[in-house]
Amino acid sequence: MTVADPADHNDTGPAVPPGPQTAVPRHVAIIMDGNGRWAEARQQTRAEGHSAGVDNIRLVLKHLEQRGVEFATVFAFSTENWGRPPDEVSFLLNLLREALKKEVEDLHQSNVRILHMGRLDGLPPGFREEIAAAIELTARNTGLTFVVAFNYGGRAEIVDAVRRLLSDGISIDDLDEEMLSGYLGCPGVPDPDMVIRTGGEFRISNFLLWQSAYSEFYSTPAPWPDFDAEEIDRALTAYAGRQRRFGKIQTAS
Ligand code: IPE
Ligand code: IPE
Ligand code: MG
Fold it and tell me: Which of 140, 160, 223, 231 is most buried as measured by Cβ atoms within 10 A of its Cβ?
């Protein structure tokens, strides 16, 4: 068996020049994977890998904003990640909670608007309040929108949306794609133009199932703590070379 070269999957080749719509993605969504393997390769603990991963988020946000990206969504903890050993789960929850506390003021000063996607139930009440306070504090900011997908799963999100649709008494005739979209995650946030996965896997792992219908997928072998400015630029360059067709036929412009 040959190991897939990620470049084979990411490069769309030079045949078609990029269309004007593909210059810079407006919304980049990232599956921040590979913290554990990054740590193991350094004889460090998985916890140290997660700490390094959280430390990397600010750098990535700054660089994306500098490059003209308006929305950045990061997958921080999935509904399936509860299935990890309890020690790792509680370490991750605490780490992310502390990071939010530590960074929220600085993010606010940087004009970043914070949003959350995912289920709040199941989280400690204090944490839920801190998330709500961060969203409220930054609600009127006009810089980068930073969406944290935390306790998030794409299937759970769709089930929750359908539950709310039913309880609102929406009739079958009124239900269409636009209406269901409005019940999902973060109304007002456009679908991601690009989904980046670090850590080398080629799977979506229950991330933004609905919203990524036409996102450009990019996978890099770099584990999340190593995903730096150079890596971001490589991903953005690949995006600029893609031709998005949305099911239609490309016409010469
Ligand atoms: C991503 O890193 C962080 C979370 C899923 C919370 P992993 O912990 O999945 O790292 P690997 O995939 O085991 O290397
Ligand atoms: C996806 O990574 C979830 C997050 C990055 C939060 P996982 O490590 O959980 O995904 P799988 O298990 O490799 O599919
Ligand atoms: Mg992983």
Answer: 223
